[in-house]
Each structure stands twice: as structure tokens, then as C-alpha cells.
Amino acid sequence: MKNLEFKGEYKDLIISGKKVATIRIGKLPIKKGQKLYIHSGGYVIGEAIVKDVKIIRLKDIDNDMAKKDGFESKEELIAKLKEHYPFLKKDEPLTYIEFEFKPYENPIPSEDFAWQGFEKNPIEIAKIGIEKKDELLLSNKEVELLKILIEEGSIRKAALRLGNLKKREIFRRILRKIMRRLQSMESTKDLSE
Known about the structure:
The protein has 193 residues and is of the alpha+beta class. It has two domains: 2-108, Hypothetical protein (Archaeosine Trna-guanine Transglycosylase, Chain: A, domain 4); 114-192, no CATH class. Helices cover 43% and strands 24% of the residues. It has eight helices and five strands; from the N terminus they run E-H-E-E-E-H-H-E-H-H-H-H-H. A hairpin with a 2-residue loop joins strand 3 (35-40) and strand 4 (43-56). The longest helix has 25 residues, at 168-192. The mean pLDDT is 89.
């Protein structure tokens, strides 16, 4: 399933059902009936099913679209779009997405969500990585970074310890490498049995 991200300011509107649409710049590869994970305020807050998708221009926006997007009028929505996309041209294609939202009872932190399919959180994966560092062919630098991740308790805090949030990708890359190699080892084991 694809992810659709919203700023935290829209979280309550989405959960309450007052925001059931969004407009994004460009032609997005989203189809009617598609399921999406909805992220807002640093959490995956639920899932949505796409009810309608249209490629539009600014001039096509009407008050009905604005209301479904959580705004009082098309003028208010257009002003917000121009704020989000300062270089938006009047005839640039936009994707209008209308959806039906189903909230999660317990929202999942977005950083942990990426590891859901693995049934382990990033810290558990890091511990496995250190424990099996030789089998997984991890470098000393990667092991040191995993130790920082474990000490800090989250990818976010570990990235900040290295200097800034952009460093999160370093930790994510190592964790993905561990997951891929563990899955490969598991597949090889299954074939040999």
C-alpha cells in the first residue's frame, strides 16, 4: 500500500471525517479503489480507500471540493495550496483525491511503521544486527551506529546525536540491509530443509 502524508494540523480534521479529500501537485499514480496508509503528525493514523481521483487545474476547484478538503471555500483552499506550493502555476496539473478514512485505534509512530512487516521495531532489529554482525557482514562503523541507535532508543534521537534529522537515512539504510540479509538467510534455510 502507498502512503499519503498530511501535516499535523490536518490530523484532527481527518480523524473527525471533516477532511475526506486532498489536492496534490502533479499527476499522481493513484487509482480509484486503491488503499493508502494515512500519515499525519508523525503517526500512521489509519487507512483510506480512494473513492475518486481527478486531474484538475486551479480553475477547476469548486466549493464542494474545498469542503471535502476541510476548508470553508474554494478561495481558502486555493490560498492554502499556494502557501504549500509557492511556485504553483495556474495551469499546472493537480491530483484531487477523495477518500474514505478508517482510523487506527492506536496510531503507529511513522518511524516504527516502516518496520511493521518485519514484526520487530528498529531497536530490536539493531540488537539482532549486532548479535549476528559477522553473519550479516556488517562493518565496524555500522555496528557502532547500531549501538548509538540502541543507546538513544529511536532513529530520530540517534540522528540528532549525529547532528541533524537528515542522518535518519543512515540508520534506516543499515536496518534495511539487516532485514534484507536476515530474510535472505531465512529463504536459504527454507530451501535447504
